[in-house]
Amino acid sequence: MTSSTTPGLARFNTLQVGEATAALHEVCASSAWRSDLLARRPFATADALFLASDAAMAELTAGDLAEAMSGHPPIGRPKPGDPTSSREQRGMAGASEALKAEMLELNLAYQDRFGHVFLICASGATGEQMRDAMRERIGNAPEQEREIVRTELGKINRIRLTRLVEEGE
Question: In this structure, is the dihedral angle defined by the CA atoms of residues 139, 62, 51 and 32, taken in order, positive or negative?
Fold first, then answer.
C-alpha cells in the first residue's frame, strides 16, 4: 500500500472534473462509483483513495454493478486495441485452442445463467485458473454470484487505481 501522496495521485487530485471522470471511467464503468470518488477528492494518500473505492463499491446497486460489468469484455476476448483488458487477461494469451473453445462455451453458459459477462480479477491468473473459477461459479445462486462479482470488481479497481496513482513515478 502507498501511504504517501504520489505524483500520480497529486495529478489526479488536481485534474479538471471532466478529465478526472475520464480517468476513473478507465478504472470502472459505473457512473455511481465514479461520482462517489469524484465527490471525495482530494485524497491525502493512495490508501484513502483505495478505501473510498471500496466504500463506493459496497454501495453499488444491482443496476450499478451491471453498468460496471458492461466495461469488461468476456475472458479470452479482450477489447481490440485495449491494452488494459489485454494486460489483465494475459493468462489467456497462450491458451490452447481447446481451452479457448471451452472458455467461449463457458462464457456463453455463464451469460445465459446470470445475464452478464463472467467477471474475475484475471491479473496473474492462468487460463486454466480462470476456467476452473468459471466452472465453480456457474453453479452459484444469482445473489451469491453478484457479491462475488462485487468483490472481483473491487480487486480490479484497486489494481487499476494503483496504476493511475503510480503514473509518472
Answer: positive
Cell of 125: 491468473
> Rounded to an integer, what distance in angstroms lies between the CA atom of residue 98 and that of residue 25?
34
- Give the per-residue pLDDT at 2: 44
This prediction has a pTM of 0.87
CA distance linking residue 2 with residue 12, whole number of Å? 15
**Burial class of 126 by CB neighbour count within 10 A (0 to 12, 13 to 18, 19+):** middle
Mean pLDDT by 10 residues, the chain (169 residues): 72 95 94 97 96 96 92 70 65 82 92 92 88 96 95 95 81
Q: What is the DSSP string of 95-132?
A: --HHHHHHHHHHHHHHHHHHSS------TT--HHHHHH
